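In this section we walk through a basic example: taking a raw amino acid sequence and producing a predicted 3D structure, encoded as discrete structure tokens. The instruction is simple. Fold the sequence below.
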Amino acid sequence: MYGMDMARRRTIREIQAAATLLRRQGGLAPSAPILDAADLAESATRLRVYQQPLPLGIRGLLADLDGRRPALVLNTRLAGADRNVTAAHELGHWVLHAGTPCITGSRFGRQRLEWEANRFAAELLLPEALVRRAIRERRCSAAATAARLGVRGSYLSRRIRELRL
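The resulting token sequence is shown next.
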């Protein structure tokens, strides 16, 4: 799965399948919340995770720090929910784009890679089964429900709209 063909645009189904497989590799049920995607990165992939202050504007990144094992670096200046989404986004790059240079030949190519990583993060953190269950069982505010799922309220709202729920 890792290092999928880079020249080809991924379908939503392929991205969903990749996120589902990563959940399975991490021992997570399809409707279990992921409160720390960085832990999932360490347990289900070869990535090492570092959390440290990064310059403003850098939420996280994938890096090859020692030439042996890639690393996911997360900005400790981010709130917990933002760090969780960033870790899931970077995991999307790892799963879908391993081996791709950081800078692609075109702005469109880079936008496509970012869209795919964003979609992967949404599928990983908020799969449809989890969102449906959260809506059905909602006993508190939308913000509290989002926090229980490890994301910001706006991220959950956007996912609910995407799923047309």
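Looking at the output, two observations stand out. Residues 143 and 154 are 8 Å apart (CA to CA). The beta strands are 48-52, 60-63, 71-75. In the next section we compare this with other chains.
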